[in-house]
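Pilot study result, target chain (241 residues):
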Amino acid sequence: MLIDVVARHLQRRNATRQRGLSIVELLVGVAIGLFLVGGVVTLFVTNLGNSRRMLVEARVNQDLRVAADLVSRDLRRAGYWQNAIEGTRVLGATLTPLRNPYGAVTPSAGTSTITYTFSRDSIENNTIDTNEQFGFRLNGGVIQMRTAAATWQSVTDPTVMTVNQFTITAVETAIDMGNACAKVCPPPALATYTCPNPPVLGIRNYGLVLRAVATADAAVVRRIDTRVRVRNDLLTGVCPA
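Predicted structure:
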């Protein structure tokens, strides 16, 4: 009898141990697990999106900065002329001075295109050749560089960004050089000569504004403002003979 009682007790205890989870406990466990998995997935997706945006921002920043540096460095060379010393004969010499054929920079107002020239001759011929014509423009969301008379090459990648603003603003300062003439301009009192076209030294600065939107993410917008000082000042006018 005692053995039967012990056997039944052990059987009931084993049955209790092997009973497992109830359906309510199982559902609660599944819900908690799904909540934790959802939080982890949300955190992962957020971090992935932030990393992607950082990469897009870095690429747009880099490409826009490279474009701005390229425009600035090349524009500084505008007006370079190997015979520039000949142009200084305008200051008092009796010889007819040479004019700088590369002096013009177009335009002089806010626009999205700028053109200019500078000498690339091994021996200066004082003539603007086909390969001495340069410039930049905004065309269809892309910054393009002029490498010859009618040749434009893209310098920004439309698959990375769309440039929606490229503005050039001229800031020009004219310095009167009349006092440097042998016969000064304007003529002093009782002078017998005139100065119809006195020499002027033009100092040219250009403000550049570039703004771009990332192609992959319209929320990524970057803008660069910079100023370029043209190294070759433009001397115009003539001293009285």
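One observation from the pilot: Strands lie at 105-106, 113-117, 133-139, 142-148, 151-154, 161-176, 200-214, 221-229, 234-236. A full batch analysis is planned for the follow-on phase.
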